[in-house]
Amino acid sequence: MFVAWRDMLFAKGRFTLITSVVVLITLLVGFLTGLTGGLANENISAVQGLNADKIALANVAESTSEKDPTFSDSQITREQAKAWSQAEGVEESTAIGISQSRGETDGHSAALAVFGGTADSPSQDEEVVISQTVADDLKLGSGDTMTIAGEDFTVTDVISERSYAHTGVVYTTLTDWQELQQRMGDPDSYATAIAIKGDPADATSIDAEQGTVTANSLTALLSIDSFRSEVSSLLAMVAMLFAISGLVIGAFFTVWTIQRKADIAVLKALGASNGRLRADALGQALVILLLGVGLGIALTAGLGALAGAALPFVIAWYTTALPAVILVILGLVGAGSALRSITTADPLTALGSAR
Amino acid sequence: MLTLQDVTLTFPDGQSRHTAVNDVSLTAEPGTVTGITGASGSGKSSLLAVAATLITPDSGSVRIGDVETTDLSPSQTATLRRERIGIVFQQANLLPSLTALDQLLAVGELGPGSAPRGERRTRAAQLLDQVGLERAHRARPHELSGGQRQRVNIARAMMNDPEVMIVDEPTSALDHARGQEIIGLICSLTEALGTATLLVTHDLDFLPRFDQVFTMADGGLSPGTAAPPLR
């Protein structure tokens, strides 16, 4: 790194420029991943809050044009729920009702998701537990009354933020959820999904027999329509930014290496090995990447914390450390593409006057 | 000591091959300067490239001390150049980002096995003083004159205490007076440090200062000088 360090200090302008580009790309990636995480949370936190090992949905592939099961199309029957509760390896199975509706109080109205029969649901009918968003939107607290689909419920508790498909969540008993479904014109609904704890011995056979599709709790999140469409497009953007960062770093170092090919030829004539020169070049890239990505992530965390009040933004290892590591690795791969110019530099060209 | 025995080097030239060095033999003893002169295209630079292990000849033997270099791999010749050969380039070929002192220290950073950094710093400073650059240790190439750059070039070649020094037309970019100074410096360093120096020059005025002189013509090497002037 002897020459590499001095090159960086000497060509400050060039290296500041490429470091700034890395900072900006990192900032963009950091913001997109933070926003993706925030939007994802607004879609899935209520389903994650079920704390299930697996989630079973009705297999609707034969009855609809959908290829994969979705929470919005799934309708679980009493028989399916019973079969799963008796399956070998299942420690606990709970039929969960999930639907979307509107909640009202005097002068306030808001869209919300109704979750029936979960561990967070109240023990009594005609009672509800509400998430903080619903409490804020409808100005509700414990003991207040709210109306869903013309039926009155008493709020017994307000719990921390839970969302489903960008709406706050109201927890009811499964019986109340079924009644709400009847009021909304769906009298046969028993439940939407089955939350399973344990490790079913032969999930595939049960799925085939019962007409269900079982997935682990993370994979099942992709069955939330809004989550799948949002996350896939945002992650595509993040992936493209990763590719762009690798290409930009690769292009910079390719040009940089070609520009100093004559110097490399001199160093090789003086006895530098290809390995030493390659290590120097990658060391330069690593310094730039660590500096650029480090600054970019620090800025993302700072600005993200400020934006967190107005935007769904998550600052966590998977929105900071993970993209940072990926950016550094891809940047090094990009820089590695410039190494060929080092190998092909001919020390013979250092002799003579044609330099 | 540098020993070339029956060395032949050819290059592709269309459908045939051009003989750049034709059955050349010479020996450069430690502490002596061997001068090579000849017209442009006579094969001087090719001979230097072979002696510097930058290119492997088609046939013949090139020995640095007791090491036969024609059998070595590219990485082995790189190590040999790093440890036992000093090269003074025609253009100074200094790295623009490095100070004069760093140009010399960089030589010790090109591979493993060199002396501790403190020792290298002391030696680099002494060499720069020896070539008359006491006040220019921290100067970068663009802050040095052509003669000063060439002095750094010479000091850099001496940095690893080489057995053999290859010098490629060191005065071509200098006026005659400065050229005389540089040749004098190379001769005195050769004697003081005991290197076997092989030097190519166009300037016949310098030839009397060398211990032995050869003339190249059409790839062949013959003792003594040819007249009239070759340029």
TrEMBL record, chain A:
Domain of life of the organism encoding this protein: Bacteria
InterPro entries, per database record: ABC-4/HrtB_transporter, ABC3_permease_C, MacB_PCD
tRNA processing listed as a keyword: no
Main location per the UniProt record: membrane
Pfam family, one: FtsX
MacB-like periplasmic core domain sequence ranges: 18-202
Protein name (record): ABC transporter permease
Annotated family: Belongs to the ABC-4 integral membrane protein family.
Organism of derivation: Kocuria soli
From TrEMBL, chain B:
One Pfam family per UniProt: ABC_tran
GO terms assigned for molecular function: ATP binding; ATP hydrolysis activity; transmembrane transporter activity
Coiled coil residues, start to end: none
Alphabetical UniProt keywords: ATP-binding, Nucleotide-binding, Transport
Taxonomic superkingdom: Bacteria
SUPFAM superfamilies linked to this entry: P-loop containing nucleoside triphosphate hydrolases
CDD domains membership: ABC_MJ0796_LolCDE_FtsE
Domain ABC transporter: 2-230
One GO location term (cellular component): plasma membrane
UniProt-recorded name of the protein: ABC transporter ATP-binding protein
